[in-house]
Design goal:
Blueprint (H helix, E strand, L loop, with lengths): L1 E4 L28 E2 L4 E7 L2 E7 L3 E2 L5 H16 L6 H17 L1 H12 L3 H27 L2 E3 L8 E9 L2 E5 L7 H12 L3 E5 L5 H14 L5 E3 L4 H8 L5 E5 L2 H12 L5 E4 L5 E4 L5 H10 L15 E5 L3 H16 L15 H12 L1 H4 L2 E3 L3 E2 L4 E2 L2 E4 L16 E7 L5 H6 L6 E5 L3 H10 L4 E4 L13 E2 L5 E2 L1 E2 L2 H6 L1 E9 L14 H12 L2 H8 L4
Amino acid sequence: MKSLCLGPFLAVSDPVSSRAFGGHLTRKCFPKQVHFHSRSVVFSSILCSATLSVLPELEEKQIFDGEKANLLVRDLRNCFDSGRTKSYEWRVSQLEAIFKLLKENEKEITEALYKDLAKPQFEAFVSEVSQVKSSCSEALEGLKNWMKPERVSTSITTFPSTAEIVPEPLGVVLVISTWNFPFLLSMDPVIGAICAGNTVVLKPSEIAPATSSLLANLIEQYLDNSAIRVVEGAVPETTALLEQKWDKILYTGSARVGRIVMAAAAKHLTPVILELGGKCPAVVESDVNLQVTARRIIAGKWGCNSGQACIAVDYIITRKEFAPKLISALKEELEQFFGKDPLESKDMSRIVSSNQFARLVKLLDEDKVSDKIVLGGQRDEKKLKISPTIILDVPEDALVMQEEIFGPILPIITVDNIEDCYSIIKSRPKPLAAYLFTNNEQLKKDYVDKISSGGILINDAILHVATRGLPFGGVEESGMGCYHGKFSFDSFSHRKSVLYRSFDADSSIRYPPYTTEKEKLLKAVISGNIVQIILALFGWS
């Protein structure tokens, strides 16, 4: 144990942060910022001084700049070049370690998610922990087959020969995660990068600090730190990372930052996967099972991190005469789910930050919107909660219809004919997901055919992202590239073409001098016409 006397500069009554003490200590006491690995911190007051006991010993917190980022990438590239991450055994060992991490720390993970988002334990398990377990399990089951070279047929022009496609890891990968599903959207891409045989750096979101810190500690504790690293921080740290040369970058977040990531990657010709978002529509026809439809929309909106999800239902389109019935059903089911006062419900997540809360309140308080609220609208700034809110037929130029809502506000747009939904959806950038509720088979076919989006789900919401065998990714403004399961392995691999030939049957047809006879024979071979080949061999036309 070491003790450090802080002297009279720290008053006993000063507040002390539970995460970092440096922010509350004056520069007179600490000319350098300090960082504590231990949670065991004890203050004892002696006369006019305070004694700080730390276990283990005090360490300086290093600033993570471009130089540190460069050294980090260099270390990981050396590790990759050594070949250790390419073996099946190493990949399996890391996936099994992740499985162990999940099994032994489920409580800590759900607690961190509650600290960051007040995410209910059930929702945290279903939407984050269990999904990471599923991804890990799928990778362990399929990895051996995924790694096998794929044999392909060859043509007569290369006879005799064999060919195959060999998946090989890209190298050093950067994963920049986001705050709304901070555990799932960190670990799922990392699993993909590992099972493809890469070294990887994870940059979790600073807006979910409890989960970010937990990820850093758990990954350091359970995984191979020579190949898998975590960098915590905010804009400066992310900027330093983006200045480096990576072999692939996966970013989850807004389109605005996605453009910044893509511009940085372009300097090094680094390929990117961008998982962005957009305004995900839900079209509701009048022939549906109303109660089931209402419940599934609620699950895909307010039951999905209070609407703070890139695939959450952003707005509804339905027939004008059907809208009152739909609103009534939503109101009834919302009360069943969250009670008469949803602000007091323990089954709804809170808004992540005061900035996001203020943004959502601004959307609701706009003059064009405030008188269109037909349900909800209550808010509690101290708790960072907004009740489930439905607004009806807001103008197209209202802010709430111009940007992704990312919160518990649900506009309903009414139309005379359900087919009018196509022009409304197509007037906006292509969404990450599009939903349709109907029993009309022709409408289902038309919707799939006419609507371009990252994914489509008929008669439910959000569940498609948890379906094995389906890729998750956007199109145009909602993103590029995809991952999940085998698609993660493919996205973090290079499919290398390999052709094998022997020294036998070395035809002179390909070599100079080029003659008319060689040309005729070559054309016959390329055409694949056996008769022409025979004629050419005998010199007949």
